[in-house]
Amino acid sequence: MPFRSDPFLLASLCENFCIIPNMRILISGGAGFIGSHLVDKLMENEKNEVVVADNYFTGSKENLKKWIGHPRFELIRHDVTEPLLIEVDRIYHLACPASPIFYKYNPVKTIKTNVIGTLNMLGLAKRVGARILLTSTSEVYGDPLIHPQPESYWGNVNPIGVRSCYDEGKRVAETLMFDYHRQHGIEIRIARIFNTYGPRMNIDDGRVVSNFIAQALRGEALTVQKPGTQTRSFCYVSDMVDGLIRLMEGNDTGPINIGNPGEFTMVELAETVKELINPSIEIKMVENTPDDPRQRKPDISKAKEVLGWEPKVKLREGLPLMEEDFRLRLNVPRN
Ligand code: NAD
Ligand code: UDP
Ligand code: UDP
What stretch or stretches form a coiled coil here (predicted)? Predict the structure, then answer.
């Protein structure tokens, strides 16, 4: 094997004939909704090698099918509550169910994923000297008493409610990130993600945008949970991925809010979906779940200033893009 014994020949061969990845990137939770879009974006750069670790609780191989078998891509069935030994330069730590239906299904497991999972990812980052980004959430602000929410707001979270496994789990995950940073010098980044939507969301995962689009396409009434005046701000997934990559490659640890400041009541959202997708359906009011935050809107001044980022896709532009994907998956062709 001539090039085994001749490193200069090997270097020259590689330079001329192969792509040498100069960044190996781990994405925990990369088979999920946001993670799979992040994979697509990172794979566009030929210098990146992407490894996904996912236990498929809410994600699926289907989301990554175009990359399976690609020489710069690797998919590992792995639960982040177990240790992971691997060599990487960057870790995007997304693993955690994001839909209330799924994170409430096994709340103890949700806490383990947030706490032990984040601890393991930080232990890995420490051992290999990788930079790590946590996808935290606007839920750390709980039912906010300040509006819109800046990063400096400490939140109003119920520590013993049915949403606490997620909200408090992410708050501990943020604390762990900062303690590893201060104690061990780990390079950290924290994104506080606000409600995100787009193609590949689980069709029946209970989140409001996916519910409404699926209901509109099936000709069912849109289920607005009472009172309907509660607000959310919806960010299209391509804007989210752009913000996450900027945060990872920038110099600020965060936390930084990444979200779209366009704020809508759930009644307004239902009316918009009805108008755009199926004007003949009804909107009906149904019971809500406990501890539902009454209003939520990101203050994105910091993202604008530090990352030069702001969302580009408006709700009325993003909903039709998601509709196309749902039509294909639900087999509801356009008339
Ligand atoms: P998702 O449920 O589609 O993706 C989560 C992925 O993590 C899935 O592929 C799932 O199988 C995997 N996973 C869950 N537990 C795991 C475990 N123990 N080990 C390994 N993999 C595990 O959710 P998403 O919307 O893509 O959210 C991604 C991240 O962004 C999550 O951390 C979520 O908390 C955060 N976030 C999302 C939103 C949003 O609106 N989508 C808002 C705020 C924060
Ligand atoms: N860990 C991991 N992969 C690694 C290194 C560590 O999953 O490459 C896990 C390890 O099993 C531990 C956690 O990360 O549970 C925290 O590791 P750290 O070294 O910070 O703490 P310690 O092992 O000393 O408790
Ligand atoms: N919601 C709704 N109808 C649904 C599902 C949700 O009106 O079919 C409401 C829910 O009460 C909440 C908002 O939509 O006020 C956002 O809920 P989602 O579960 O999408 O996200 P989160 O509560 O985590 O922000």
Answer: none
